[in-house]
Amino acid sequence: MKRCDHSPVWAQLQAHFAASGRGFDLREAFAADAGRFEALSFEAPELFADLSKNRVDGATLALLLQLARDCGLEARRDELLAGAPVNHTEGRAVLHTALRAPAGAASPFNAEVQASLDAMLAFAQSVRRGERGEITDVVHIGIGGSDLGPAMVVQALEADRLPGLRLHFVSNVDGHDLAPVLRQLDARHTLFVIASKTFTTQETLANAQAAKAWFLAAGGTDVARHFVATSSNTAAAAAFGIDTAFGFWDWVGGRYSLWSVIGLPIAIAVGAENFRALLAGAHAMDQHFASTPLERNLPVLLGLLDLWYRNFHGFTSRSVAPYHQGLRRLPAYLQQLEMESNGKGVDLEGQALPYGTSPVVWGEAGTNGQHAYFQMLHQGTDVVPVEFIAVKHPRHGASGELAERLADQHRKLLANCLAQSQALMQGKTAAEALTEKAPTASATLDREVLARHRSFPGNRPSTTLVLEALTPRSLGALIALYEHRVFVSGALWGINSFDQWGVELGKALCNQLLPRFESRDAMGLDGSTAGLLARLSA
Ligand code: F6P
Q1: What's the pLDDT tens digit per position in 444-478?
Q2: What is the radius of gyration, based on Cα positions, of the chain?
Q3: CA separation for the pair 16, 179 (Å, rounded)
Q4: Is the pTM of this model over 0.70?
């Protein structure tokens, strides 16, 4: 696949940006085109997307799509889906899409995938049925992709939770994560799931060892019955004392693994039918990505928008604002998905890239963010495209007067969501601010000065994604949308989105530093690290 800047369309985009992209004004665009919303809103499985509040027009999109075609994006996508070794630095295929293909589909490894899924779902059900003894608490120990996906999904699907079992997620090597969880538990009624693709991750193994020691000290006897593993290194799990280990394949990347046996806590929490619905939603998005013409292909359009903002407008971050409390961990999940995938500085041949890659992805559940950092989004010096996620129908599970009150609150939530994207786009001129009375404003400050403080630049772009309801199926589609969008921008940037060498150096240095906390030997360390070591180990 051709790198984006090696295509002749790149220069055309640069010229287009200089001519009309840089000065693009959203307010003028809406005023000039009554059909803008219809032209720039799109349907995808389980989702509606309004892209009209973005700094693009038909000409921009046409050029971006031409760039994608000229670079060979479609062929690259087909290679990915067919199982070509697109993760070339690790010599691996990348086939998380195969994990959500239905039984009997002409998809790579389908028979093995279905057998693994059936076994995992059956185990989840056996736990719920008490076939492993009376289990009241499940503690999932993992980190990164072996934590963020399952934890985010279990939280998001709160309305689909089966009653009776408590789930806990422990990831941090900081004992302040594990200790308060253990304090709530009875060893006889606890199941630990140790989730680690490699089964070598320091944080996870330390927590697993601590949990095992606690279990034995707290009267537990049967480690093999109370500890299970989800890992592609089942031999290491066995050495730990685990004989129930659900394996998976090296072609499942950590940050794409919630669809595999790593999703065990999801299956325990919401049951087999809901887990299958999650997979089905993701599969529907896979099909959309695989076969919808690029002009209406939502992951492609979002990926192109990301490139437009990053490399032409120079925006360095994107904020995600889910207007659903269940999705409050989505930004953290997306940080790994996007920044571990596309936070790279060299192309496939190892050549340094002359342009920016992964934006900083950050956010918080709306409306909480509004009362914290939205100030910066509206009036700060940096433009940050915002992605709003609105859910039409809530699933509060309430009745009577409470249901009515919460329905009203939901309208407030949605009104807030729309108001924010409207405010970001519209802004407010100093002249407009001058005509207003602000009750809390200083009575002595010059009115013109005050108006400048109270004006908003506007023209700040946003995307709004709309789900009918947050269900296993729609959540599956939403996550898959993000996965493919990250692939699209990464492919155009010419990078390997599927390795993560950048996490290695810190791990190696940590292993070298660890014994120095005992020996206090600072020999060969830089002055800062030596000084900090002395302070922390004294
Ligand atoms: O350190 C980064 C990383 O390798 C992630 O890519 C991965 O999701 C995480 O660590 C956990 O790895 P494992 O599942 O092997 O414990």
Answers
A1: 999 999 999 999 999 999 999 999 999 999 999 99
A2: 25
A3: 57
A4: yes
The secondary structure of residue 352, as a DSSP letter, is B
CA separation for the pair 357, 28 (Å, rounded): 30
Question: Which atom of ligand 1 is nearest the CA belonging to 507?
Answer: 1
Distance between CA atoms of residues 452 and 411, nearest Å: 32
In the block, residue with structure tokens 């495209």:
385
Rounded Cα distance between 292 and 297, Å, is 5
Sign of the torsion formed by the C-alpha atoms of 263, 265, 271 and 272? positive
The response to whether residue 194 sits with its C-beta less than 6 Å from ligand 1 reads: no
Pairing of strands 47-50, 41-44: antiparallel
The residues pairing with 463 across neighbouring beta strands, listed in sequence order, are 387
Q: What is the pLDDT of residue 184?
A: 96
Which residue, chain included where needed, has tokens 């490399």? 311
- CB of 196 closer than 6 A to ligand 1? yes
3-state SS assignment for residue 502: helix
Q: Is 257 in the pocket of ligand 1 (CB under 6 A)?
A: no
CA atoms lying within 13 Å on the CB side of residue 75? 6
107, 101 contact by CB (below 8 A): yes
Q: Which residue out of 88, 392, 393, 507 is catalytically annotated?
A: 507
371 tagged catalytic: yes
Give the pair of three-digit tokens for residue 38.
Answer: 């219809």
Nearest CA among 91, 77, 98, 78 for reference residue 252: 98
CA angle (382 as vertex; 381, 388 as ends), nearest 5: 125
